[in-house]
Amino acid sequence: AFESQQGMIITNADNRILRVNQAFSEISGYSAEEAIGQDTRLLASGRHSAEFYLNMWRSIQQTGAWQGEIWNRRKSGEVYPEWLAISTVLDAQGKVSNYVAAFTDITERKAAEEALKESEAKFKSFAEMASDWFWGMDEELRFSFFSGRHYELTGRKPENIIGKTRRDFANESVDSEKWQKHFADLDARRP
Q1: How buried is residue 107: exposed, middle or buried, by Cβ count under 10 Å (0-12/13-18/19+)?
Q2: Do 132 and 119 touch, CB atoms closer than 8 A?
Q3: Which of 29, 117, 122, 159 could join 74 in a cystine, given CB atoms 3.0 to 4.6 angstroms apart?
Q4: What pLDDT was estimated at residue 182?
């Protein structure tokens, strides 16, 4: 189980690295020989505040575990995001003897999230310039986006609609003159 696709580290109670797996070396760039005996700060990126680490270690001391996103540094100097889970190992007397950490490089996931944000921003920009009105819905069929054209036609501000469903507006109607103008605008743009 120690050899897995997740990077794994076993440290002593003072955070000195005792053992790493092959995935650790592949992700971090450090060989086992280079890492063993080093403090885990060897991987620190410098992107997190002292308060971040204080809260992380407070959680570990109180609950025996912590997990979350963290930015670390490869041997090459490249800073990268990982999903890290740390667990405490206690000895027979209940004192901390080791920490076991498992982590996954999430660089590709973070890049995909960023690309999605950029794509959404482009879509919203396009939707705001269009003569028609656009909206988006989430998996529960709640409105998640409205173009500015919707406000022009209905007089409803997006912040009053986001999170609601069509049923929430079933008894309301829109001024028919606005609808006629909307359809005329659409017809004028048809080839």
Answers
A1: middle
A2: no
A3: 29
A4: 61
